[in-house]
């Protein structure tokens, strides 16, 4: 009796251990890389951000401006709210891996400098439901910009790091843009 109870307990423990191992060993999806180090996890996430002002269902909308914004070459004072799809590939129809939700505002009078205050919330694989917070300057006309990642949730709790962004396409008439993000965080 005691023997079979002990075997049952052992079997249950092994099942629990196996499901724990399966959970923790879930591979990162293709657009992500996870590297466990002795002191934490290094994560690299690469995706495309689709900022679309045109069409009947824009994902980026200008919600406020200053009196002189439209006379400013840098659109100083314009505030844009976005709910932009993040995709695995450059094509808007490629796999959706998350959404960039938040706002950016033109904070430069003599240079194009946006203040980004945005969540990147992921929808794919092990990152489904986890978010990163971006907060910082985006000199959008530069070939490559660096922005701070100041925190995260879910699998990305306590994340800190940086995002490197490169514009892949920009339409000067309607403002539509596709930007490649290469994000590296540690937690
Ligand atoms: C992400 O999580 C939501 C809510 O739990 C679920 O409905 C959805 O199917 C998941 N998506 C993927 C791609 O796993
Ligand atoms: C993405 O950023 C990381 C960290 O800065 C860098 O090592 C890597 O080379 C970048 N990837 C590409 C494809 O540029």
Automatic annotation (TrEMBL):
Protein's cellular compartments: Secreted, Extracellular space, Apoplast
GO biological process, one term: phenylpropanoid biosynthetic process
Sorted UniProt keywords: Apoplast, Secreted, Signal
Signal sequence segment: 1-21
Keyword Signal: yes
Primary residence: secreted
Regions that span the bilayer: none
One Pfam family of this chain: Dirigent
Superkingdom: Eukaryota
Cellular-component GO terms for this entry: apoplast
Function: Dirigent proteins impart stereoselectivity on the phenoxy radical-coupling reaction, yielding optically active lignans from two molecules of coniferyl alcohol in the biosynthesis of lignans, flavonolignans, and alkaloids and thus plays a central role in plant secondary metabolism.
Assembly and oligomerization: Homodimer.
Listed PANTHER family: NUCLEOPORIN-RELATED
Record-given protein name: Dirigent protein
Gene source species: Punica granatum
């Amino acid at each position: 009796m005691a023997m079979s109870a002990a075997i049952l307990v052992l079997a249950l423990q092994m099942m629990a251990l196996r499901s724990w191992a399966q959970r923790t060993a879930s591979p990162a999806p293709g657009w992500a890389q996870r590297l466990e180090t002795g002191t934490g996890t290094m994560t690299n996430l690469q995706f495309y951000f689709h900022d679309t002002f045109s069409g009947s269902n824009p994902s980026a909308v200008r919600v406020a401006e200053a009196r002189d914004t439209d006379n400013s070459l840098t659109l100083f004072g314009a505030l844009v709210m976005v709910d932009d799809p993040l995709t695995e590939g450059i094509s808007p129809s490629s796999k959706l891996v998350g959404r960039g939700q938040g706002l950016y505002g033109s904070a430069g009078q003599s240079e194009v400098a946006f203040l980004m205050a945005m969540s990147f919330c992921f929808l794919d694989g092990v990152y489904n439901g986890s978010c990163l917070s971006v907060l910082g300057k985006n000199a959008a006309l530069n070939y490559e910009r660096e922005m701070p990642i100041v925190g995260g949730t879910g699998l990305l709790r306590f994340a800190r790091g940086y995002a490197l962004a490169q514009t892949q396409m920009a339409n000067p008439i309607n403002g539509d843009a596709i930007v490649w993000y290469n994000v590296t965080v540690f937690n």
